């Protein structure tokens, strides 16, 4: 097949859509992003950028733009509600040493702005004030999109990607019966308190002596905190239950937040009392869906539109970004004339759908662990986790942020490497592997190549993607 010029439209300039725009430009496609909002931006709260996506931020040059607003923290302390430490993960230097990339925490506005700048530098076009109002993907192989924009009301694309979040119009058009829903009455407050204010409090300031992530676990609630904005702001996500299902963001009275956490460790309680304003966020879950695409594979979903998940593993935006990176590798094969568009989308769905489902599962699981009711289950969790406080390596722990298994499957995952392996399999009809040693590239990368020196001569197991 000859090389192809393809024009891809993204509906939605959230974290996922922008990551996809960068990856697709790197793949050589023409990219237009349509965003409903009048101005590009993100809500005022923090977000974790775990090593599975910090690797993308570094590779794509986004990390250089965000600079010191990406904060790396020294340690993760897992605590009971009363402050008792039951688990511990040393983050610096272990995360970079063992997973190869940092675990960052960042203000969403800084992340979003870094992604916008990088997407524009890579040549993506972004139209604001362009709410997608309808799409026609059946009249021809291309997709016609109507928007609310007075200046650019219609667009035609070879492929439309629905990166428009949990209430996606693209998903509602393809799959009108799918309804994202809160699986339980669990939701989360989000809030920020300036470090300056905490420093003035003789009790609370102990918590900010070092840059740390802290988790306080309790029955049906928890608090997770971390530094953002070059270590100037203290970000809190406060999990709780209400007496009804919540499906929209709600403004709440800070007195409600204070009451909810009144029995917590006095140090964090002091900081909760400083929260100037807070909102309650729903935790909506989408799917698992049977398909993410139109029958002609000219429309496809990604991110929260396809697989929104509960927040307990900090993987919603990260999974959206992985989708974008994976799509980029698939579309590169189309641009280079090796695959048809429909084939590339088939590889994307086959590779990413099980991964997104796994992320949803592991997120539920961590929520269940952190919210365990007081009593024998919580005591057993704390006992198992507390092995981390000793000086011996631990092979298994209920602290999924530090557990070796979840670290490898979630935080060491490389979406681009996964895409290359899936594409190789699709094109060549067999797995990418060292035929002599009978070891697949995916297994070699996970268990062996990570520790081999870059210049190791016998690096035959570092099989290059020969697509
Ligand atoms: C309390 C809480 C904490 C979280 N913490 C983390 C974390 O630490 N790490 C992490 O990875 N994830 C976290 N998440 C999840 C994360 O916020 C989401 O998964 C992520 O923002 C989804 O990104 P997205 O780009 O898919 O969708 P969105 O961010 O929803 O972006 C969708 C975009 O599409 C636009 N849009 C919508 N409709 C249209 C339309 N019709 N036409 C044009 N544009 C449209 C919207 O304006 C928006 O810009 C958390 C979530 C919650 C609730």
From TrEMBL:
| The UniProt record lists the keyword Zinc-finger | no
Record InterPro entries:
FAD-bd, FAD-dep_Monooxygenase_BioMet, FAD/NAD-bd_sf
Record family assignment: Belongs to the paxM FAD-dependent monooxygenase family.
The record, for PANTHER family, names: MONOOXYGENASE (PTHR13789), PUTATIVE (AFU_ORTHOLOGUE AFUA_2G01950)-RELATED (PTHR13789:SF147)
Name of the protein: FAD-binding domain-containing protein
Cite the FAD-binding domain residue spans from the record.
Answer: 11-355
The Gene Ontology terms for molecular function here are: FAD binding; monooxygenase activity
SUPFAM superfamilies (UniProt xref): FAD-linked reductases, C-terminal domain, FAD/NAD(P)-binding domain
* Source organism per UniProt: Cadophora malorum
Keyword presence, Flavoprotein: yes
Pfam families recorded: FAD_binding_3 (PF01494)
At the top level, the lineage of the source is: Eukaryota
Keyword list, A-Z: FAD, Flavoprotein, Monooxygenase, Oxidoreductase
């Amino acid at each position: 097949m000859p090389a192809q010029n393809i024009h891809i439209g993204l509906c939605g300039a959230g974290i996922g859509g922008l990551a996809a725009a960068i990856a697709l430009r790197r793949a050589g496609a023409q990219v237009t992003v349509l965003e409903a909002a009048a101005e590009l931006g993100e809500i005022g709260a923090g977000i974790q950028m775990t090593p599975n996506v910090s690797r993308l931020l570094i590779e794509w040059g986004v990390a250089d733009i965000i600079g010191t607003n990406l904060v790396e923290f020294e340690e993760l302390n897992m605590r009971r509600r009363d402050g008792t430490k039951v688990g511990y993960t040393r983050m610096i230097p272990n995360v970079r040493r063992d997973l190869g990339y940092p675990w960052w925490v960042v203000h969403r506005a800084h992340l979003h702005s870094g992604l916008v700048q990088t997407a524009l530098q890579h040549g993506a076009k972004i139209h604001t004030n362009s709410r997608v109002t309808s799409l026609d993907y059946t009249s021809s192989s291309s997709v016609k999109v109507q928007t609310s924009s007075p200046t650019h009301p219609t667009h035609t694309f070879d492929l439309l990607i629905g990166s428009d979040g949990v209430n996606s119009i693209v998903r509602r058009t393809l799959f009108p019966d799918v309804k994202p829903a809160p699986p339980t009455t669990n939701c989360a407050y989000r809030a920020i308190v300036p470090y300056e204010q905490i420093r003035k409090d003789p009790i609370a300031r102990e918590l900010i002596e070092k840059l740390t992530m802290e988790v306080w676990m309790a029955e049906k609630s928890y608090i997770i905190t971390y530094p953002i904005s070059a270590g100037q702001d203290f970000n809190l996500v406060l999990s709780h239950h209400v007496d009804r299902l919540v499906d929209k963001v709600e403004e709440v009275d800070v007195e409600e937040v204070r009451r909810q956490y009144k029995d917590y460790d006095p140090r964090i309680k002091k900081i909760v009392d400083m929260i100037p304003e807070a909102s309650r966020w729903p935790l909506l879950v989408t799917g698992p869906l049977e398909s993410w695409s139109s029958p002609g594979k000219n429309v496809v979903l990604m991110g929260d539109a396809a697989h929104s998940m509960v927040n307990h593993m900090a993987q919603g935006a990260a999974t959206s970004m992985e989708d974008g990176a994976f799509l980029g590798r698939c579309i590169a094969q189309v641009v280079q004339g090796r695959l048809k568009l429909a084939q590339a989308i088939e590889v994307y769905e086959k590779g990413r759908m099980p991964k997104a489902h796994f992320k949803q599962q592991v997120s539920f699981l961590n929520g269940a662990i952190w919210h365990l009711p007081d009593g024998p289950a919580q005591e057993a969790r704390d006992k198992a986790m507390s092995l981390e406080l000793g000086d011996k390596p631990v092979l298994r722990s209920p602290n999924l942020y530090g557990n070796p298994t979840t670290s490898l499957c979630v935080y060491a995952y490389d979406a681009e490497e996964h895409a290359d392996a899936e594409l190789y399999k699709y094109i060549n009809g067999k797995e990418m592997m060292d035929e002599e040693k009978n070891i697949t590239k995916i297994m070699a990368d996970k268990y062996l190549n990570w520790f081999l020196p870059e210049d190791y001569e016998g690096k035959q197991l570092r099989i290059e993607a020969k697509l």
